[in-house]
């Protein structure tokens, strides 16, 4: 009886002790970073998530600057934001791969309080099929472009912190930056790189009252997604369909709320939360309650991840088999509809790229 009572007491006390310990050690502490009347600079701000972020920030009273390559799209975005909020935003045309152009834009924009590094390009394709020029382009824009942007803005952000209060640097990653996804080999590599950049940068700038955030949106209904779907491998589409796509404004709300609270990891949906817990690693965590969930759930999610990897060995061959059957079915349909039996008989899988 005594042993049984001790067991139940331990069952209650151990989680409470763990919670108290996590409360003591979680760093940095929770914070609220005000956005009203402060300057937010958003790259990739002429469309998609960047434009939705600009709308939200402007509606909350921020001074907004957006940067993109196309001056025409920037003008359209500026007019759209003015129409919906009555506020003018500053626009800057520059390619993030060009450090000098980015530096000029940052200098002209003035002191930055919130830097949102949001630009991104992606071409969903198996690595074997993808051209190296496309791989370089993805890495240059998504990863090197982020380095260029931060390198240009950081000195000014550091100098102005004493007078302007806490600052923020947010990097727009992807759920493909939390877990590798079939057909996203180059894209995942560029987005995984942002995590290393963010974790190291947080250590470098937290002493200057600058807080780093890493946003992990899923597929988002943007013009970029429409273009991506035209070339996306079938298996990639199957995987993406399992979680669905979010609206750009929904992602922008999640992102901006997380940025204002100084959160390091900002997931945008339930799958993203599970991935954030599973991949927490050595990343910062402000919430001791979330830290508790990460500690408790880590083992369970690791088992789930191992089950996924085990299942992939079966799913891969299954997909190839069913894809081949689908192609063979198309061949048979063409054959039956063909008026010329000899032409129909000459068709084969090789000719169809199978």
UniProtKB/TrEMBL annotation:
<dbReference type="InterPro" id="IPR020904">
    <property type="entry name" value="Sc_DH/Rdtase_CS"/>
</dbReference>
<dbReference type="InterPro" id="IPR002347">
    <property type="entry name" value="SDR_fam"/>
</dbReference>
<keyword id="KW-0256">Endoplasmic reticulum</keyword>
<dbReference type="GO" id="GO:0030148">
    <property type="term" value="P:sphingolipid biosynthetic process"/>
</dbReference>
<dbReference type="GO" id="GO:0000166">
    <property type="term" value="F:nucleotide binding"/>
</dbReference>
<comment type="similarity">
    <text>Belongs to the short-chain dehydrogenases/reductases (SDR) family.</text>
</comment>
<keyword id="KW-0547">Nucleotide-binding</keyword>
<keyword id="KW-0472">Membrane</keyword>
<keyword id="KW-0521">NADP</keyword>
<keyword id="KW-0812">Transmembrane</keyword>
<dbReference type="GO" id="GO:0006666">
    <property type="term" value="P:3-keto-sphinganine metabolic process"/>
</dbReference>
<keyword id="KW-0746">Sphingolipid metabolism</keyword>
<dbReference type="GO" id="GO:0047560">
    <property type="term" value="F:3-dehydrosphinganine reductase activity"/>
</dbReference>
<dbReference type="Pfam" id="PF00106">
    <property type="entry name" value="adh_short"/>
</dbReference>
<dbReference type="InterPro" id="IPR045022">
    <property type="entry name" value="KDSR-like"/>
</dbReference>
<protein>
    <recommendedName>
        <fullName>3-dehydrosphinganine reductase</fullName>
        <ecNumber>1.1.1.102</ecNumber>
    </recommendedName>
</protein>
<keyword id="KW-0560">Oxidoreductase</keyword>
<comment type="pathway">
    <text>Sphingolipid metabolism.</text>
</comment>
<keyword id="KW-0443">Lipid metabolism</keyword>
<comment type="pathway">
    <text>Lipid metabolism; sphingolipid metabolism.</text>
</comment>
<keyword id="KW-1133">Transmembrane helix</keyword>
<feature type="transmembrane region" description="Helical">
    <location>
        <begin position="6"/>
        <end position="26"/>
    </location>
</feature>
<dbReference type="GO" id="GO:0005789">
    <property type="term" value="C:endoplasmic reticulum membrane"/>
</dbReference>
């Amino acid at each position: 009886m005594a042993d049984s009572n001790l067991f139940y007491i331990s069952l209650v006390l151990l989680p409470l002790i763990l919670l108290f310990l996590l409360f003591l050690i979680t760093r940095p502490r929770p914070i609220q970073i005000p956005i009203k009347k402060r300057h937010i600079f958003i790259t990739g701000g002429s469309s998609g998530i960047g434009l939705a972020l600009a709308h939200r920030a402007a509606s909350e009273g921020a001074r907004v600057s957006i940067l993109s390559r196309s001056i025409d799209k920037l003008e359209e975005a500026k007019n759209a934001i003015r129409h919906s909020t009555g506020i003018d935003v500053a626009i800057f045309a520059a390619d993030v791969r060009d450090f000098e152009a980015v530096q000029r834009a940052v200098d002209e924009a003035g002191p930055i309080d919130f830097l949102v590094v949001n630009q991104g390009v992606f071409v969903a394709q198996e690595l074997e099929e993808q051209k190296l020029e496309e791989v370089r382009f993805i890495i240059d824009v998504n990863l090197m472009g982020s380095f260029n942007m931060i390198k240009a803005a950081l000195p000014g952000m550091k100098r102005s912190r004493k007078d302007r209060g806490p600052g923020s640097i947010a990097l727009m990653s992807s759920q493909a930056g939390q877990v590798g996804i079939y057909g996203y080999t180059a894209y995942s590599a560029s987005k995984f790189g942002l995590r290393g950049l963010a974790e190291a940068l947080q250590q470098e700038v937290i002493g200057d009252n600058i807080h780093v955030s890493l946003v992990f949106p899923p597929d988002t209904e943007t013009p970029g997604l429409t273009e991506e779907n035209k070339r996306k491998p079938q298996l990639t589409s199957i995987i993406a369909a399992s979680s669905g796509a979010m609206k750009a404004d929904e992602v922008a709300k999640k992102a901006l709320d997380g940025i204002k609270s100084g959160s390091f990891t900002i997931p945008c949906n339930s799958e993203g939360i599970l991935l954030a817990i599973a991949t927490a690693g050595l990343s910062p965590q402000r919430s001791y309650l979330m830290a508790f969930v990460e500690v408790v759930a880590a083992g369970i999610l690791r088992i789930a991840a191992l089950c996924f990897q085990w299942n992939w060995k079966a799913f891969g061959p299954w997909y190839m088999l069913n894809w081949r059957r689908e192609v063979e079915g198309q061949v048979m349909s063409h054959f039956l509809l063909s008026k010329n039996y000899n032409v129909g008989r000459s068709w084969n899988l090789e000719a169809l790229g199978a």
